[in-house]
Design a protein that fits this description.
Thrombin, subunit H, globular
């Protein structure tokens, strides 16, 4: 049993290490605003609309490089935004099929909670769909039992295979967080940017 737990822990650590290079910090004039996830290697980044809702902002890559950024797609109702930076050959995370996610699966959330850079937290999926309690109807969610904090918004939610299955978005309590499924992100990009193959 101990060996299995050690192996599982080691594999999760590897998944997180590989994905961290695709995690960015989004900073405004007053400091850190949140996280973002590199979606395309040509500088397209996905984050939450509330992270980039106003003012100018910059993107800081995992290697410390700083770029000016601009919004290229924005949907307040879905709380999604696409931003672009003048960069290429950026590392990305393979996008998984969020429709195949099942309750009880282990997941990893990346972000910068309270300004702690490149942090991760792990937990499990406790629900999914468009009719979850206490949430706006008509929107699909992944409900999670893990510690999301301010600064996780816009960061990647990964499955144990290291695939991107969601974008961290909000919390409703100390142990419950929510992410936007990756298939919803794809639909957002197709609708706002005409990207039929958005991964």
């Amino acid at each position: 049993m101990v060996n299995l737990l050690q192996q599982f822990s080691h594999e999760l650590a590897l998944v997180a290490a590989n994905a961290r290079t695709s995690l960015v910090r989004i900073a405004g004039d007053q400091g850190n605003l949140g996280a973002g996830t590199i979606w395309h290697s040509d500088g397209l980044i996905i984050t939450n609309a509330h992270v980039v809702s106003g003012g100018q902002f910059s993107v800081i890559l995992s290697n410390g490089d700083l770029y000016p950024a601009q919004r290229v797609a924005y949907d307040r109702d879905q709380d999604l935004a696409a931003i672009a930076i003048p960069a290429s050959d950026l590392p990305t995370i393979p996008v998984g099929d969020s429709r195949q996610v099942r309750t009880g699966e282990w997941v990893i959330a990346l972000g910068h909670p309270w300004g702690v850079r490149d942090s991760l937290t792990a937990g499990s999926v406790i629900g999914m769909g468009a009719n979850l309690p206490e949430l706006p109807t008509g929107r699909e969610w992944l409900a999670l039992s893990l510690h999301l904090r301010p600064g996780h918004s816009g960061g990647a939610l990964l499955n144990v295979d290291g695939q991107l299955i969601g974008i961290n978005t909000m919390i409703t309590g100390p142990e419950v967080g929510f992410a936007i499924p990756s298939h919803v992100v794809k639909s957002f990009l197709k609708q706002h940017m005409g990207l039929a193959a958005a991964s």
